[in-house]
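Example 3.
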Amino acid sequence: MNSKKTILIVDDDIDFRNQIKFYCEKFGYETITANGEIEAIEVIKTKKPDLAIIDLMMEKDDSGFILSYKIKQKYPDVPVIIATAVTSETGLIFGVESHEEQQWIKADLIMEKGVRPDQLQREIKRLLKE
Amino acid sequence: MSDLKVLIVDDEPGIRSGISRILRNYRVGYPFLEEDFGFTLTEAETGEIALEILEKQEIDIVLLDNKLPGMEGIDVLEQINKRNYDTAVMMITSYASLELAVTATKRGAYNFVPKPFTPEELRGAIESITKHLFLKRMTKKMSETARQIRFQFLSVLSHELKSPINAIEGYLKIMQEKQAGTSIDDYMHMINRSIERITGMRSLIMDMLDLTRIENGTKSRNLKEVDIIECTKMAISSMEPMAIQKNIKILTAFPESLILTADSNEVEIICNNLISNAIKYNRDNGTVTVSIFTDKTNLNIIVEDTGIGINAEEQEFLFQEFMRIKNKKTQNISGSGLGLSIVKKIIELYNGTITVESQPDVGTKFIVKIPFKAQPA
């Protein structure tokens, strides 16, 4: 029997963290949370999550990008979802589709915050190849 | 590993092949990414050829000699800047032309290596330009965001107003669908968090109103003789319920009365903010000390706490709008991120200063100095 898969949730907004944690646990995953880039780095030193959902703007505007790099550096096979509200707030759109973006943004998916739980579950399953 | 394209522009074949040799197997590691960059090299013997190559190919780094047979390096640099290529330029100059190197830097060259250079010098310069390029690109889009967000108050404000709404909406959706159970008790934590976010939002709106008032200028200010001590006492009594919750003692050291020409609302905003911060960021059973005294030139208000403190790096940004210190210790403390910036703005209206002394886990001391002489105009 397989043990539960673990999702690392990183966000500086405690409530967003709580809610993602709530849903992920409801979907049947274990969760670890961290409140920012620095704390997440500490976490991944000793633990390897099966997937990570991280915010973009935390300590710094690009903390999410840096963190996804670091996660991928240490665990290239761990899928990373960057969840951000940046588009609704600034109109800037990031993706991981173009070659240029893939070169600089080491995430598997960029998701606007406020996604429906069923969508989130679908994407997690897809990335975990379940 | 990513490859960066380097264009070497030099009319001496020896230099070109020398640089190629030095860089061919050179790797630059990014300090925290442990990701290496390698280099693919292209050569051009004149500035004209270089510009042709730049037009056709994407080049990351240009190593540009100034003394070229046709157009000079500095002119090539100017063209590169004019055409807005996403490339970083490093000038190669002889020692005799340091002045030129300075001009080049001013015109947008990232840096320069004096000729003759050792392989080590070249590698060092390439390392620094690579890191510069990497960061520049990675944060290119973000820095556009950052510019908007830092300098456009409104977009930050919308973020600050939207986040609590999103958080509360998220909780409400969970409740609406009874996702966490059928009893109201299953949702108590979410209800409490929602109320917490509403409190934070209210304080943001109140602070916004204060800020609008200040920024509307002096026309709505009501300057008259005000008893600073009385204002402070009022602020303390309104904060007392908050202090009692954490069993914090508020100690005072001030004379019976102290008259200053001021707007009493403004004095209250200063005291309220400093004292409420001293309580919010304090430990349980801690103390807050409010001292007010005069010296030859200033009225001094000092508010000291025994709280979590602020490290030196964080102190630097303390008075900026929306600069809330975010860490484990502050994550459950709500605030608008405007309080101290408002306080500073007000104090500046009185030609005064506010400074901070703090030690993490020991406490923080805010020192306000308002000169008697330069009373507000």
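Residues 15-127 of chain A form a domain with the Rossmann fold fold (CATH 3.40.50.2300). The interface with chain B takes residues 12-16, 18-19, 22, 26, 35-36, 39, 58-59, 61-62, 65-66, 69-70, 73, 85-86, 88-90, 92, 94, 103-104, 113-114 of chain A (CB under 8 Å).
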